[in-house]
Design goal:
The protein has helices at residues 45-53, 86-91, 99-109, 122-136, 152-164, 176-182, 204-236, 245-260, 321-328, 363-368, 391-397, 402-405, 414-426, 444-456, 468-474, 494-501, 531-558, 563-566, 568-601; strands at residues 7-16, 19-29, 34-39, 60-64, 71-74, 140-144, 168-172, 185-190, 193-197, 281-292, 295-306, 310-314, 336-341, 347-350, 374-375, 378-384, 387-390, 432-436, 460-464, 477-483, 486-491. The chain folds into four domains: 7-206, Rossmann fold; 266-346 and 430-505 and 515-526, Rossmann fold, CATH 3.40.50; 357-428, no CATH class; 531-601, Orthogonal Bundle (Helix Hairpins). The chain is 40% helix and 22% strand. The longest helix has 34 residues, at 568-601. The strands form five sheets. It has a six-stranded mixed sheet with strand order 5-6-7-3-8-9, sandwiched between helices. It has a six-stranded mixed sheet with strand order 14-18-19-12-20-21, sandwiched between helices. It has a three-stranded antiparallel sheet with strand order 2-1-4, with no helix packed on it. By secondary structure, it is of the alpha/beta class. The two termini are 54 Å apart. α3 packs across α4 (122-136) and α7 (204-236) runs antiparallel to α8.
């Protein structure tokens, strides 16, 4: 017996500002569907979800929800007018006997139902909206970035709830681990078309790359055919004008087909401008202790951060990750202990609150008005890595178009705001990057590029994140803040931390029992290679090959006996570059040998 769809969309077309978002879209969601909705930032994922929820009216087409079936949408910015507390909002519409569901969701998602709406942060409001949806338990849940503003414990709770629900759901998320664990089908929005694959997110990238490869092959064939037909037209059309008008029209049709092809959106042309090298020792903390209102943040904490380290801070919201980070940067004074900063530090900060962005300013003014990016006497240029660039050209590198340059920051999506903040960050040189939740709202391709940039970055990275996959890809050291002043240092990323912690953390049924704090703040040894070390071992051969090629070019340049006399400055720079690359190659070879020996030993 055929199942009745929970939601059916037929012939949906939608246009914003003259550009079609969707055209003749057909979409069906069946009972039990667990669907990942993916696509580039700005491709229309949130818009499609709002159309599905009935919050955005399409220009044409029909949306059918069968009688007796319900569709629920988690609002990104929920309206709470008329409600005194978050609990009042989350429980509205529920029967008295169902109020326990809000309390249960509140515990899992860590929001306080008694919090006054007028004092609640954006993150607290979003958690209340998610709790409301989970308590209502509609037949179809539409979840737009539900893990934003959740810590890893709350994400794990939500993952368990969605994994066990009988409801269907469509899910937008930047969290790869979350998507892999929960989805069994994928909707991909790409240039106004929506494709569906009956496999979860884990199979998405291979599917996407195969489609793009097939498109490239078709485009290549079309270009060859146009070239061949155009040559015929030039050489023989005058002699056969009457008999071959059909072939001429066919050539025109081919050219029209090519013009109609929608170019794929490329990757953002992001680069991290590394500043001068810092000292070998970047941060040294000894005996740090800090408490607020008698609640300890850290106790007797030691840490040594060296140049090139990638240090991640993980733990529940409110445990003190930002406070510890500020102490390590010298921005917060500890109650006990001391922090010594290394020499020649240039710090760049990515702030998860987007406080560096004025929502009322245009993108243009947001860049040109930045004192560190301003070019004297040039209102249309910004300083990027010490070189002036036209502001629109620089914005295009981060996938913004000319029309957006004069638009207000508040008109941007969450992912676009993150890209704008990255544009400001990456224009400046640095050797110490502080990234506070950088992955929120970014699409998969931009996350991949950011990870690659961090891999190649010559400086040091301090990272706060709840994205388990990103932590595994980037971190070489993880500091787990577990509450009650415990801050323990582990080697590797998130998976390595989970593998090493043993019984350090209380089990679920032992939450009320006190656990002994770990005294020794040292990374625990682990047999074999960590996730990050395996990734590094795979990348090192290409890095060594690149360095060898650069060394070869520099040696060829310096083999010119007249170079020193003719261009002494160029000779000096080439010499310094050669020494630097030889040092990097030696270090890379040493690291590769060490990792190979460690892998063989395992």
């Amino acid at each position: 017996m055929a199942r009745i769809p929970l939601l059916q969309m037929s012939g949906i077309s939608l246009t914003f500002g003259g550009d079609p978002v969707f055209s003749e879209l057909e979409l069906v969601v069946q009972p039990g569907d667990r669907v990942a909705l993916v696509g580039r930032n700005g491709s229309g994922k949130s818009t499609l979800m709002k159309v599905m929820a009935g919050l955005v009216e399409p220009d044409q087409g029909n949306i059918v929800v069968p009688p007796g079936k319900s569709v629920g949408y988690m609002e990104q910015d929920p309206g709470m007018e008329g409600f005194a507390t978050l609990g009042d909002y989350a429980s509205s519409g529920l029967e008295p006997g169902e109020l326990y569901k809000v309390e249960r969701a509140g515990e899992g998602l860590k929001f306080d139902p008694a919090r006054l709406v007028e004092t609640a942060s954006g993150g607290e409001r979003r958690r209340a909206a998610l709790a409301k949806l989970m308590a209502e338990a509609p037949d179809l849940m539409l979840l737009d970035e539900p893990t934003n503003h959740l810590d890893i414990e709350a994400i794990a709770w939500l993952e368990r709830e969605l994994g066990s629900t009988r409801a269907a759901y469509v899910l937008i998320s930047h969290d790869r681990a979350f998507l892999r664990a929960l989805t069994r089908a994928t909707l991909w929005i790409d240039r106004g078309a929506v494709r569906r694959q009956e496999q979860g997110f884990d199979a998405f990238e291979a599917w996407r790359d195969k489609i793009w490869e097939e498109e490239d092959q078709q485009r290549h064939k079309l270009n060859r055919l146009i070239k061949s037909e155009a040559k015929w037209a030039v050489e023989g059309i005058s002699a056969r004008r009457k008999r071959n008008q059909g072939r001429v029209r066919a050539l025109q049709a081919l050219r029209a087909d090519k013009a109609a092809q929608i170019k794929r959106q490329g990757s953002a042309a992001m680069t991290l401008e590394a500043g001068p090298k810092s000292g070998r020792k970047v941060i040294e903390a000894k005996g740090l202790a800090k408490a607020f209102d008698s609640i300890p943040i850290v106790r007797n904490f030691d840490l040594l951060v060296q140049r090139g380290d990638r240090v991640a801070f993980v733990g529940p919201n409110g445990v003190g990750k930002t406070t510890l980070l500020k102490m390590l940067l010298g921005q917060e004074t500890p109650d006990e202990g001391a922090v010594t900063l290394g020499t020649n530090l240039e710090v760049a900060v990515f702030d998860q609150t987007r406080a560096q962005l004025d929502p009322e300013m245009t993108l243009w003014d947001s860049l040109t008005g930045d004192p560190e990016m301003r070019v004297s006497g040039k209102a249309d240029q910004v300083m990027v890595g010490g070189q002036p660039k036209h502001v629109v050209g620089y914005l295009k590198e981060f996938l913004f178009d000319e029309r957006q340059a004069r638009a207000a920051v508040k008109s941007l999506s969450g992912g676009e705001k993150a890209r704008l903040l990255l544009a400001k960050l990456m224009a400046k040189t640095s050797n110490l990057l502080v990234l506070d939740e950088p992955t929120n709202d970014l699409d998969v391709e931009t996350l991949d590029l950011l990870q690659e940039l961090l891999d190649d970055y010559d400086g040091t990275v301090l990272l706060v994140s709840h994205d388990r996959d990103f932590l595994d890809r980037v971190a070489t050291t993880t500091i787990a803040m577990e509450g009650n002043g415990r801050a323990t240092v582990y080697a590797g990323g998130w998976s390595d931390y989970i593998a090493q912690r043993g019984d350090l953390l209380p089990k679920k049924d032992e939450k009320s029992k006190p656990s002994k704090p770990k005294v020794k703040q040292e990374a625990q040894p682990k047999a074999g290679l960590s996730f990050s070390e395996k990734h590094r071992l795979e990348k090192l051969p290409a890095e060594m090959e690149r360095l060898e090629a650069e060394i070869g070019k520099l040696e060829e340049l310096m083999s010119d006996p007249e170079l020193f006399t003719r261009e002494p400055v160029k000779f000096q720079k080439a010499t310094e570059a050669l020494v630097e690359r030889q040092e990097k190659l030696a270090a890379a070879e040493e690291e590769w040998l060490m990792l190979e020996e460690k892998a063989e030993g395992a």
